[in-house]
Amino acid sequence: MVSVLQNVAIDCADAYELARFWSGVTGRPLHPDDRPGDPEIQVMLAEGPMLHFNQVPEPKTSKNRLHLCLRPDTSRDEEAARLQDLGASFVADHRNPDGTGWVILADPEGNEFCVLRSEAERRR
Fold first, then answer.
1. CATH superfamily for domain 1-57
2. Is beta strand 101-106 parallel, antiparallel or unpaired with respect to 89-95?
3. DSSP per-residue string spanning 86-104
4. What is the dihedral sign for C-alpha 44, 81, 18, 104?
5. How far apart are CA 53 and CA 85, in angstroms?
6. Where are the domains of the chain?
7. Closest CA to 60 of 122, 123, 11
8. How many Å apart are CA 20 and CA 24, to the nearest integer?
9. H or E segment to which residue 121 belongs
10. Single pTM value for the model
11. Where are the beta strands (DSSP E) in 37-107?
12. Does domain 67-124 have CATH number 3.10.180.10?
């Protein structure tokens, strides 16, 4: 017997608005039944588990123990800039002079995530 990963759940203050941000990040739609004000919203990813946003009353208080890592189809730096334009904030720079490394950003509610190098950048 095994378990199948159904979704990645993210606690948040405003499920709809945070799901809209992540919909913009991934380019994937919200679940068609989800509406503003719903306490649970899902982003329908093309493959793998869904992103599931749970509205909770308590605020985020410390560093994430689990986070998402994104591999863009453009360059890491172009994607980091695009995501900041969507509302992400810069947290830390782990880029190296040789082009390796990653950037840590936070979504509008402070959940950290990494932007990795694209596959093309990794082949260089």
1. 2,3-Dihydroxybiphenyl 1,2-Dioxygenase, domain 1 (3.10.180.10)
2. antiparallel
3. HT-EEEEEEE-TTS-EEEE
4. positive
5. 21
6. 1-57, 67-124
7. 11
8. 6
9. helix 119-123
10. 0.93
11. 40-43, 50-55, 68-70, 89-95, 101-106
12. yes
Q: Where are the beta strands (DSSP E) in the chain?
A: 7-12, 40-43, 50-55, 68-70, 89-95, 101-106, 112-115
Residue written as token pair 């991934």:
26
Tabulate helix, strand, coil % of the chain (nearest 5): 25, 30, 50
CA angle 111, 117, 119 (to 5 degrees): 130
Find out whether 108 and 17 touch, Cβ atoms under 8 Å. Answer: yes
d(CA 111, CA 67): 8
- Give me the residues paired with residue 112 across strands: 106
Print pLDDT tens along the chain (124 aa). Answer: 988 899 999 999 999 999 999 999 999 999 999 999 999 999 999 998 999 999 999 988 888 889 999 999 999 999 999 999 999 999 999 999 999 999 999 999 999 999 999 999 999 8
